[in-house]
Automatic annotation (TrEMBL):
This is UPF0145 protein IV74_GL000356. Belongs to the UPF0145 family. Gene3D superfamilies: Hypothetical protein apc22750. Chain B. InterPro entries: UPF0145_dom_sf (IPR035439), UPF0145_YbjQ-like (IPR002765). It holds the Pfam family YbjQ_1. Signal peptide: none annotated. It comes from the Bacteria. It comes from Carnobacterium divergens DSM 20623.
Length: 106
């Protein structure tokens, strides 16, 4: 399946628009990652724990969106957008959402 941020697929014609599809993932950030990120905030450096969590959440959200597009009979998802939010009283949850338009191609 083709997944793209553009509104078309090069060398392909859109036959039909099947609808908007979404992928959502809400992931908890554990206390050890928070402590490591806090230390890096003071001393500098990258937070590997948060980066890995973000990568995993993004990958899962895209996979979920792709699966939903497949159930609609789509060949591609165009116009994909990603959004990131921090949730929870102590900002301990990460939400990654993606959306796009499921299409069939000629």
């Amino acid at each position: 399946m083709i997944i793209t941020t553009t509104n078309s697929v090069e060398n392909k014609t859109i036959k039909s628009y099947e609808g908007i599809v979404f992928g959502e993932v809400i992931s908890g950030i554990n206390m050890l990652k928070d402590m490591g990120a806090g230390l890096r905030n003071i001393f500098g450096g990258r937070s590997q724990g948060y980066e890995n969590e973000l990568l995993n959440a993004r990958t899962e959200a895209l996979k979920e969106m792709e699966e939903r597009a497949k159930t609609m009979g789509a060949d591609a998802v165009i116009g994909v957008k990603m959004d990131y939010e921090v949730l929870g009283a102590d900002n301990g949850m990460l939400m990654v959402t993606c959306s796009g338009t499921a299409v069939k191609l000629n």
